[in-house]
Amino acid sequence: MPRNPASYGRFRDALIVAGVLVLAGVALADAVRGREEPVEPAAATGSTETATVDEGPGRLAGVPAPGSLVVLDHDGCALRQIVVSGGQELPLPRIETGCELWAAPRGGLVAYALEGPWRAGAFRPFRLLDLSHPDEPLGTYQTFNGVTWSADGQHAFWCHDPGRGYDLPVRTAERPRALRGCPVGYAPGERPAFADGGRLVVGGEPVLEAPERIVRATFNRDNTVTLYLADGVIGRYRGEEPLGRVRAPATTGPPALSADGCDLAFPVAPAFVVLGSVCAGVQGTFEGRAAAWSPDGEWLAVAVGEEIVFHHLAGTLATARWPISARALAWVR
Asked: What are residue 71's DSSP bridge partners?
């Protein structure tokens, strides 16, 4: 979505007047900086407007935005899926999780950790699932650092350690393909991208050089790349040209990146979401413990207290509220 610096400036002023910002000028600290032999994966068998909740079972206030919200309940971490525009919860069997969720940006595929307990930094099993066929899991595997999806939502990769990763075309009969290293992202064409220190490598060829070691890379639809660096800086690049940067605060979880690769929502202690931008985008702080951007980049859903609050960050100021206590959110097409 094109960014208009002037409009976002007006937006920030309006937020202050409206009292939406909870903390102004939260100091951003440096990001938190980081075994056994890897285990082979094993396939499983088997104006401000506040919307209110509509009457009627199972239906919530509609939000004029595309896609569905995938939610892990705060109590029990059960998986739920709700169509945002209609507020209709889709029928899913009771799926208990290990309170970690990695959702594909499109295509209806998710990965979720299985119930533990699992110690920090250790391998934990996760399951792949097609939300349109929740009774038919797509496999159970192990990871130590989560699951990353390609832009089309059809490929997933995960890592056992820095020396070994796996790539899987999910809706196929293929087995996970072992990779010589742990990818940091998916390049266009569903090609795993690797980091050699600060060098980003795709298809064996370097595509850019960053000033610090690359931890993660997101390839954006406008041919730019958003890089997460080891020194806590997040930068946006077009080729070798740096376009903008922001220093991450000390977070309690991974940040949510908007679909255009510009804006980030950082969960920070005790229960706030700090917004930062590598473009001329939004900045500020909301009360909440988790956040997700709408696919069109105009809305931010924030889990706060016993609610999910939707903030419209483009154009008119508006909010909508759902009475759902959530631990994790993912907004998908």
From this structure: 80, 329
Query: Alpha carbon of 82 to those of 45, 68, 96, 101, 256: distances in Å?
Result: 28, 5, 17, 15, 19
Q: Are strands 50-51 and 319-322 parallel, antiparallel or unpaired?
A: parallel
Q: Which CATH class name applies to 5-46+50-183+248-332?
A: mainly beta
Q: Which two tokens stand for residue 246?
A: 């922001």
Number of H helices, E strands in the chain: 1, 29
Query: For residue 22, what are its two tokens?
Result: 């909870």
Q: What is the pLDDT of residues 203-230, one digit of tens each?
A: 999 999 999 999 999 999 999 999 999 9
The structural domains of the chain, with segments of one domain joined by +, span 5-46+50-183+248-332, 184-247
Closest CA to 315 of 69, 85, 65: 65
184-247: CATH class: mainly beta
Q: Count of alpha carbons within 13 Å of 297, Cβ hemisphere only?
A: 16
Reported as type and span, the H/E element at residue 328 is strand 326-332
CA distance 234 to 253: 15
User: What is the C-alpha separation between 233 and 31, in angstroms, rounded?
Assistant: 8
Give residue-wise pLDDT tens across range 99-151.
999 999 999 999 999 998 777 667 889 999 999 999 999 999 999 889 999 99
How many other CB atoms sit within 10 Å of the CB of residue 178? Answer: 13
